[in-house]
Amino acid sequence: MLQNRLKELRAREGINQTKMAQLAGVSRQTVSLIERGEYTPSVLIALKIAQVFKEPLERVFWLTEEKEDENSEETAK
């Protein structure tokens, strides 16, 4: 699962979702979905967002292992 620090970084910079969206060239809805982990941005969008905060990509976004659904093992049997 792709994790991010967008909310934290926005707070640090004192910008709202609308301003961040303008700076990154995406919609405010896209920013909101990314922050909540409901949308995985393309590499290009992720790079643009990292550039807004002058941070390396890996300090803004990182992967974590998804927890395996307990029922998936039962279904597989």
TrEMBL record:
InterPro entries per UniProt: Cro/C1-type_HTH (IPR001387), Lambda_DNA-bd_dom_sf (IPR010982)
MF terms in GO: DNA binding
Presence of keyword Nucleotidyltransferase: no
Keywords attached to this entry: DNA-binding
Domain HTH cro/C1-type: 6-60
Matching PANTHER family: DNA-BINDING PROTEIN (PTHR46558:SF12), TRACRIPTIONAL REGULATORY PROTEIN-RELATED-RELATED (PTHR46558)
Protein name: Transcriptional regulator, XRE (Cro/CI) family
